[in-house]
């Protein structure tokens, strides 16, 4: 199955890596370095790194078996320079250990969060609101058959849980109405099993309201609901948090991390990690660690807790240039942050 899909995407228009020049500028790959691409995808960023830096070693991690197939192809093209790894961020320590990759040994790490074009453009994966297919949405595909699909969540979650999922992960204003419509569909013995069925159901809640995206193009009313289900099914935010912890542990002092995020939920986690705003290794849900003036703490203790492990390389978050957004509309929501490990 995956070999067929790899052949299909290799002959189609290639996926365009987002903010490629900016990523290379901040990663600064050099000869003989080791770079960990934590979200390999179809390998656009990694391929360019291999071209830029002679004898650079790429460790290519991805949880998607299709992306792993791409990494194997790239390993054939660049012998002894690419190490393909199949797994989630939370599986990375075990995978790296098997390849004798030790902590504090990696020169640069790249994260390109979110859903890849090849996932959106494959109807059978169920990610896209515009391509009809089964409501799956699992980035791991069938690696873990016991993990619930999006259809399983819609069939079994309570109305309250559906509301929380859609509201929290989709930031959808009509989450309550959508959750109610999904539960009402069950009472009518209507099982939601395809992306088209879910998209039509959500659309029916909006009373002919038309939404637009950042480029002022019409946007489907179910887009945020699809995003919410995808994030929930794949445990994405917890994985992102864990991935950034791994980045700190495996980078050398002076090593660089570059992140690309595509919505505010991802970006907030990255931002608070880089600022050191953490509680028990988890991004603080509040913008500031301390908001009470009633505490009288030792100044050195406060300084130690508040200091970040990172030095940001860009004062303000970077976004794609207008020309890139025109040529690659899927880059429109991208935000780039870069930092050096200093502690």
Could you explain how this protein is built, in words?
The protein is built from 15 helices and eleven strands. It is of the alpha/beta class. The chain has a seven-stranded mixed β-sheet with strand order 3-2-1-4-7-11-10, sandwiched between helices. α12 runs parallel beside α13 (264-275). The protein is globular, with a radius of gyration of 21 Å. Residues 1-14 have low confidence and may be disordered.
- Series of secondary-structure elements, N-terminal to C-terminal: HHEHEHEHEHHHHHEEHHEHEEHEHE
Sheet with the most strands: spatial strand order = 3-2-1-4-7-11-10
Shape: globular
Indicate the radius of gyration in whole angstroms. 21 Å
Give the termini separation.
45 Å
How would a textbook summarize the main sheet? Answer: 7 strands, mixed
- Regarding quaternary structure, what we see is single chain
As residue ranges, the low-confidence spans are 1-14
Average predicted local confidence, pLDDT? 90
In which range does the helix fraction lie? 40-55%
Question: If helices are DSSP runs of H or I spanning 4 or more residues, what is the number of helices?
Answer: 15
The SS-based structural class is alpha/beta
Percentage beta strand: 5-15%
Beta strands, count: 11
